[in-house]
Design brief:
Helix content of chain B: 10-25%
Strand content of chain B: 25-35%
Number of helices of chain B: 5
Structural class of chain A: alpha+beta
Order of helices and strands of chain B: EEHEEHEHHEEEEEEHE
Distance between the termini of chain A: 44 Å
Strand content of chain A: 25-35%
Distance between the termini of chain B: 23 Å
Shape of chain B: globular
Order of helices and strands of chain A: EEHEEEEEEEEEEEEHEEEEEEEHEHEH
Largest interface: A-B, 42 and 43 residues
Radius of gyration of chain A: 21 Å
Oligomer: heterodimer
Number of helices of chain A: 5
Strand order of the largest sheet of chain B: 10-8-9-7-6-11-5-12
Number of strands of chain A: 23
Shape of chain A: globular
């Protein structure tokens, strides 16, 4: 069977589908993509169901080759450095990996996660109905762990895609991480009004020690009005808990299903990816919105992915200068959009 | 009027989760109302309701707001909460074999020191009680149990002990639990059950539900090993019966 072979893998490289749903009541984390919108966009670009299995690439990067057959892929990121056999490609691209060709993905100036989706199906066995990898409990993906060099990912029904690289035009992924929308609660009553205002205004600095489980914020600690322990209750992705030290922790895809700290607010679904893409050191603040506003944003996001992802052929001037220097000529092709 | 008689509070956790909060404490009456609503919604779930997560004192409902709008969900919850105050009928009682002997009950000596009971009395007290599964959380299949006799109420450790084996029977902070997955813990490990409450490789990965009752039946280490082998072969060694609530 056609396969993708992982030649080099940074930490935090996992397979993710839309998440493992239905088992939170048994303590099973949903996992799934850190940036659901970008994950869905990559799947849309190769014609797959939006929640199909894709490779989630962290800033640790990835080198991958195709084996036995050609595989059409979409590699979607913001600012990651992507190259095919050493030739630079746009940061969101659809292309065909011919057997023996090598795709490299490296971190860039911004963004924390990218997604590689394939034309066909990454053929790993679902566990509890999902292929999403949750490394802490060893569930899903490839034997419940992150991908490593030497791993072979069979691709069922593999088929080639674009003959030449095409840039994917997905302006909805140009999201400024500076302001994150939240719905206050469920335990905002554990904080006085001035502390809610301080929480929203920030500014907070995204700590570099975040991972798939949580995003940690540094800033001026918040004060609790009614203590910092609650009897455990459910935890949604995006819930912002404030433990005893007053520094907010935003619980992400690999969070535990329940928790015992007051949750001052919850990041709205459409802004989860915006937040997840913030690299360590990013400054951000929050804006309180109503449930109705959040639902409207979610509807707009869904409508974005109704149509195929627009694409255009990569022209030479899009390529890195070292590639052009390698050719030792600029052959008169100009950027038609300039 | 107790917490349990009030209308539940409805709290949003974002636009895709609603917390139905019946109280703020660990209390069997509150848990009854949580589980009664959980049952009622599970019997006839509205389209778009994705997950129901019962906890000690609340029911978290994850929903797709593009399929199920908040007002419809809230109306359904209010109607059902008013109609169902407690679970009716029978409850499921599980008898789980439990080995308290070495090497499984490795922290029994520390519990004995902290409670002033003899090690045998610790075992007899733990095995003499009937527990209720309040909720799962923290880790896959980690079942929080209420009903620990007060004489065994020891605070959790200030710092975690080294990881325990899977299916550890633990106590701490006035609660009991079955800890299915090896991990460092602040709880005290007093035994182990061969019954696998969490087995992702099986078709029925979980068999004990929130609201079920549990008793522990002492077995020696040889019996534990034999039962563990039967579980490994796919058998279930927990005994099930239906009892009146």
């Amino acid at each position: 069977m056609t396969a993708l072979v992982v030649e080099a893998a940074g930490p935090g490289l996992t397979l993710q589908d839309g998440g493992r749903h239905g088992y939170l009541r048994y303590g099973i984390t949903a996992a799934g993509p850190m940036d659901p919108l970008m994950h869905a966009t990559a799947n849309r670009a190769v014609g797959n169901p939006l929640d199909a299995t894709a490779i989630e690439v962290s800033t640790g990067g990835l080198t991958v080759t195709a084996e036995r057959g050609a595989v059409g892929i979409a590699m979607v990121s913001r600012s990651f450095r992507i190259a095919l056999d050493g030739a630079a490609l746009p940061d969101a691209v659809a292309v065909t990996l011919e057997p023996g060709q090598t795709l490299t993905v490296r971190a860039g100036a911004s963004g924390a996660w990218g997604y590689l989706a394939v034309r066909g199906r990454i053929d790993v066995a679902p566990v509890l109905g999902s292929t999403a990898t949750h490394t802490r409990s060893g569930l899903g993906g490839l034997n419940g762990r992150g991908l490593a060099a030497g791993d072979r990912l069979p691709v069922a029904e593999a088929r080639p895609g674009e003959v030449s690289p095409h840039r994917l035009i997905a302006p909805w992924l140009d999201r400024d991480p500076k302001e994150i929308r939240v719905v206050l609660g469920p335990q905002d009553d554990y904080f006085a009004p001035d502390q809610i205002a301080a929480f929203l205004a920030g500014p907070w600095t995204v700590s570099p020690r975040g991972d798939r489980m949580a995003c940690f914020l540094d800033g001026t600690p918040l004060k609790h009005a009614k203590g910092h322990d609650i009897v455990s209750d459910g935890v949604a992705m995006g819930a912002i808990q404030v433990p005893g030290n007053g520094l907010p922790i935003i619980l992400m895809a690999d969070r535990q299903s329940t928790g015992g700290y007051p949750k001052i607010a919850t990041v709205i679904g459409p802004d989860l990816g915006r937040l997840a893409q913030a690299q360590g050191g990013t400054l951000l603040s929050f804006r309180s919105v109503t449930v109705a506003e959040a639902v409207a944003a979610r509807r707009a996001e869904r409508d974005t992915l109704r149509e195929p992802v627009p694409r255009e052929p990569v022209v030479r001037t899009d390529l890195a200068s070292d590639f052009l220097l390698g050719l030792n000529l600029v052959d008169g092709v100009t950027d038609g959009r300039a | 009027m107790s917490d349990a008689e009030h209308e539940p509070r409805l709290l949003d956790s974002g636009e895709a989760a609603l917390v139905v909060e019946f109280g703020s404490t660990v209390d069997p009456d509150i848990s009854d109302r949580v589980l009664a609503l959980d049952d009622a919604l599970g019997a006839d779930p509205p389209e778009g309701l994705r997950e129901r997560v019962p906890t000690y004192r609340s029911l978290m409902l994850h929903y797709d707001p593009l399929v199920l709008d908040r007002e419809t969900l809230v109306a359904r919850v209010r109607t059902l909460a008013a109609q169902t105050s407690a679970r009716a009928g029978t409850a499921t009682l599980w008898t789980l074999p439990c080995c308290y002997d070495a090497p499984h009950g490795e922290d029994i000596g520390q519990v004995a020191e902290r409670t002033g009971l003899s090690p045998d009395a610790v075992v007899a007290t733990h095995a003499g009680a009937t527990y209720r599964v309040y909720m799962y959380g923290f880790a896959p299949g980690f079942a929080y149990l209420g009903g620990l006799p007060k004489t065994l109420a020891v605070p959790r450790r200030a710092s975690p002990r080294p990881p325990h084996p899977r299916n550890a029977v633990v106590i701490g902070g006035g609660l009991a639990a079955v800890a299915t997955v090896p991990m460092p813990t602040g709880w005290y490990v007093i035994g182990a059950t061969p019954a696998r409450l969490y087995a992702p490789e099986r078709d029925e990965s979980f068999f004990v539900g929130a609201g079920d009752l549990i008793r522990f039946e002492p077995v020696d280490a040889a019996t534990f090993a034999a039962l563990d082998a039967r579980e490994a072969a796919g058998e279930r060694v927990a005994r099930r019966e239906e009892v009146r609530r």
